[in-house]
Design brief:
Length: 287
Amino acid sequence: MTEHAFSNVAIVGAGTMGHGIAQVCAMAGMEVRMYDVADAALQRGLDAVHANLDKGVDRGKVSEELRDAALMRLAGSTDLETTVDAADLIIEAVPEVLSLKQALFAEIEPMVEDTAVFGTNTSSLSVAAIAGALHHPERLIGLHFFNPVHIMKLLEVISHPTTADAVVARVCAFGAEIAKECIYVKDFPGFATSRLGVCLGMEAIRMLEQGVASAADIDTAMVLGYRHPVGPLKLTDMVGLDVRMHIGEYLARELNNPAFEPPALMREMVASGSLGKKSGRGFYDWD
Ligand code: NAD
């Protein structure tokens, strides 16, 4: 049997990111338990893993054996303690609210072994602030995955000042097992990815506001001119205008840099419910 860096992984939050992280861990041979406060959200997450794996089989990317084995290793629950009690790695993927993430880790810490490691999938919040909720903050590290998790190769690993070296080394082995390429980043607002990505997105919206070019042409400029796989406005639609607006506000404040300030057009679109792909309308029509 293969030795894993972590053999029992608990995923807290079964949404867009949580179910994807659960899937890649189960495919890599780890036992996975996934938790969500909402029964319907948990079921949606489990169904999404099934659907992704079935699609993989249909496309010849995943064998039937691997799909079946991964599904056997994945269990869901709405009971937090039974989800985490045997886990040696707990990854949270709950909404981007500092107090929520802190409260969850504080609740989980007494439920797990002293050797368990905590990972946060935050896209922008201070990892040190999240770790501050623990009696042993050295056990927590940022594990920033990308959407869709089973396709995107990057894992951004964020150490805060007291993250233990042994935790970094274990997480590095874990990243290789789930076939991700890790980059190592300091706990600085926006890390490497969100800081650059959100900055480009905000500038593209300002250009649209100023009538420089259409949304499609601004995106094509980056796709064909800079070989980006997707343009900054379409990407903002895919992530969600509301999500990006909150990250922009946070980064403008934390980095004291107006380039991150959400443009008026973005604020108007969010206020009117044009949130991008998830609402059917954003810079593009998704219906
Ligand atoms: P989501 O809204 O799709 O999923 C969040 C899930 O958490 C929901 O199913 C919700 O029911 C559940 N939840 C809420 N409160 C909970 C609690 N107390 N305990 C357990 N579950 C709870 O959100 P998401 O897009 O998956 O984002 C999750 C995290 O990942 C955020 O921190 C976000 O910033 C980060 N992230 C998102 C993306 C992205 O592209 N969506 C990419 C990278 C990182």
